[in-house]
Design brief:
Layout: H1 34-46, H2 49-60, H3 67-70, H4 72-82, E1 86-87, E2 89-94, E3 101-106, E4 109-114, E5 117-124, H5 128-136, E6 138-143, H6 149-154, H7 165-168, E7 173-174, E8 183-184, E9 189-201, E10 204-216, E11 221-222, E12 225-226, H8 228-231, E13 235-236, E14 242-243
Antiparallel strand pairs: 1-13, 2-3, 2-6, 4-5, 5-10, 6-9, 7-8, 9-10, 11-12, 13-14
The structure holds flavin mononucleotide.
Residues 88, 102, 104-108, 122-124, 127-129, 153, 156-158, 236 line the site of flavin mononucleotide.
């Protein structure tokens, strides 16, 4: 499996003949793809024919999206419509001279490591947030509650680097404890981060930040823990769609138990 690293091109040798993009006029409905057909034929020879035919019929009901055939923009829309819901990191950064405080939402966001605690956001292209992190090594992840929907949207405009979204959107800030970029005063949770690694991958750069300090407004805690129902996090879906937290389900994990001898 090829591993991605800074500045490497995608490994085209990983593309098998079955994956040639030109082979599939896409999207197409109602016909099994060549890959599905050859796979189904192989399985048919080896396994239960009834199950194989069922799998074949189910395959025929899919619409195929080959990234190379549909192109990067269409596949971006596809990916961001299926990898949903995505939590939104509202990232604050500062220019190296300290003159401009930047704020922008990033929904390509996740936990990368728990010990040490590292979170990660992705800049698609080279945005001001990324440049500021590269130049200063610091950022704050502010969490995005439902009541701040319009304010968050207002900070996603592609202003020049000299313009502060805190100012244009009229967002109150408060000083951070460990880093220079300010926090959003009304954010229920803030993570103060120092850049750990940046990783260029295709058209994007992944920014990994070690969390040096976290703070939660007291009203969002329940029994000492941040409570999802109180946090009311916003999420990003495909296109211009946003999401809110749905029903919260409680379900415990089942521990593995060694079979006991009779
Ligand atoms: C909810 C939401 C999530 C977004 N997520 C991302 C993302 O993950 N990565 C990205 O590069 N842009 C994302 N954007 C677009 C950026 O916020 C937008 O390009 C912004 O202008 C970047 O600001 P900056 O140049 O000050 O960093 C998102 C926009 C919205 C509204």
């Amino acid at each position: 499996m090829p591993s991605a690293s800074a500045g490497t091109a995608p490994d085209e040798s990983a593309r098998t003949p079955d994956c040639e993009p030109q082979a599939l006029p896409l999207p197409q409905r109602g016909h099994p793809s060549p890959i599905a057909l050859s796979h189904a034929r192989t399985v048919f020879l080896r396994a239960d024919p009834i199950r194989t035919v069922i799998a074949w019929i189910l395959d025929a009901m899919r619409v195929d999206f080959d990234p190379a055939a549909v192109g990067p923009t269409a596949f971006y829309r596809f990916l961001t419509s299926v990898v949903v819901p995505r939590p939104i990191a509202w990232v604050s950064t500062i220019t190296p001279d300290g003159a401009v405080e930047n704020l922008a939402p990033h929904s390509f966001f996740s936990i990368a490591s728990t010990d040490p605690p590292i979170v990660q956001f992705t800049s698609i292209g080279r945005k001001d947030s990324l440049r500021n992190v590269e130049d200063t090594g610091e950022f704050v992840v502010n969490f995005s509650p439902e009541p701040m929907l319009h304010l968050i949207r207002d900070t996603a405009t592609d202003f020049p680097r000299t313009v502060s979204e805190f100012n244009t959107a009229g967002i109150e800030r408060e000083p951070s404890r460990c880093v220079r970029p300010s926090r959003v005063a009304a954010a229920p949770v803030v993570l103060e981060c120092r850049s750990h690694t940046t990783l260029r991958m295709g058209n994007s750069t992944l920014v990994f930040g070690r969390v040096f300090f976290a703070a939660v407004h007291e009203e969002y805690l329940l029994n000492g823990r941040p409570d999802a129902g109180r946090l009311r996090p916003l999420t990003k879906l495909g296109g211009d769609e946003w999401g809110t937290l749905g029903e919260i389900l409680h379900l415990n994990r089942i521990p593995y138990e060694e079979p006991q001898p009779d």
